[in-house]
Predict the structure of Putative ovule protein.
Amino acid sequence: MFSLLLLIDQLDSPHVTVRIIASRLIIKSCYFHLRGGFELILSRFLHIRNDLFDYLSIRLASRPKLVEEFAAAILGTDTEELVKRMVPVVLPKLVLTQQDNQQAIFT
């Protein structure tokens, strides 16, 4: 999982070559390990999907180019479609986190 996140971090590099190599490595590693694409990993391993969506939701505000590049290069969709897929996974965790936070109730 950590190597995947390190490769995803390279998707907003200012160097085109780095972005291309990172996206190719992500795609090729999925085919190498599971004989399927990245979608297969997301559907088969829910803990990886949940961790990845958490990571991308955190990066959405600070590094939107990274999320946009991930959606386009790896999943073949646009950012809006990726966010729609992320909401059912990320939103319940945010709600549970905010319920424990008294300050969140008053803001």
Summary: The chain has one domain: 2-106.
